[in-house]
Amino acid sequence: MAASLVQSGEDAFRKMFKFYKRRNPPPDFCHVIDFSGGIPNPDPKVVPAKLDPATVSDVEAARLGLQPVRDWRAFGLQGYPGFIFISNPFMRGSQPFWVRQCLKIYPQKPNICNLDIHMSPSDTQDIWGKSVHALSSPPSGKREPKTLLERLRWVTLGYHYNWDTKTYSADHYTHFPADLHLLSFQIAAACGFPGFNAQAGILNYYRSDSSLGIHVDESELDHSQPLLSLSFGQSAIFLLGGTHREDPPTALYMHSGDMMVMSGQSRLLYHAVPRIVPAPKEHVTLEMECCSMAPSLQDNAVVEPVSKQDWAVCSQYIQSSRVNVTVRQVLGPGQSFPETLDAGQAWTGRQQE
Ligand SMILES: O=C(O)CCC(=O)C(=O)O
Ligand SMILES: [Fe+2]
Questions:
Q1: How many other C-beta atoms are found inside a 10 Å radius of the C-beta of residue 130?
Q2: Residues 239/250, Cβ–Cβ less than 8 Å
Q3: Global pTM?
Q4: Hey, what domains does the chain have and what are their CATH numbers?
Q5: Residue 252 in contact with ligand 1 by CB distance below 6 A
Q6: What ipTM does the predicted assembly reach?
Q7: 332 φ, ψ to 5°?
């Protein structure tokens, strides 16, 4: 049985991935679980998840642009212990701040992005600044070269993930953004993981035809801490599989503002994003009302108002794109990288090959 699956190359996960990626004819999305709204056809797998509202005060949540934890709509999935889906817990008008951070701030140096591979640091120094003019101008009708922002595919934060060796290393670390660190700390605390320490982040930038292949995130050395995932902009079909690559997955919609927490037995599950789909209209228009947000902000808020100019660029970008942020704790308390995993040596070795 296993041999025939391997021969045909069509195990259940790959089959499902191809099904949802297909353009012609487009797939039927009727089996994709949608946690947003009232869940008109509740899927029997979906169960309410219990959070811990006492761990995050309403004031602390509001500083980050989050609703009080008791109002969050959180779900689990039968058969996936430790998986928690939080359906957009952001206060209306606060997503634009996080979108702006993902597009304008987090791609800045010393963070690392895909463009660094073929460009010099001075060329990738100011991706936002070099892109805003073209992105704010009305289309000229001519074929314009893509801006750096449009060519951005990934950014790494904190311990920078090495895509070749699939490792993190002690000597490849830069300061993790404090605002995202605090947001992650509070989300994890509400989900029963007090003390979560965001040490690495990967931002993925998806265009409408992008996808992300089947993988498991296992490079972190401490798997007792959850993996957090936040999404903004257009929606995605997310496939959540099992502990084996070929296990059949469950398909979920991930909309703007939605969060996933993969913990416990679900921390090391295979997953993939076969397709980006247009966001339901009301999600983007209502949730992204940024200019009405300013009066409701507290004095010590982390979330700041986004200027009209910045928002013009961000809103144009997310009309056809999705940004996903995964946040990871790499090391447990007191843990350090083993000597043998010195990525400096591993890296040199590869270059000499
Ligand atoms: O885009 C997503 O929803 C998933 C991203 C992901 O799996 C990753 O960055 O490891
Ligand atoms: Fe992943």
A1: 14
A2: yes
A3: 0.92
A4: 8-352 (2.60.120.590)
A5: no
A6: 0.99
A7: -75, 170
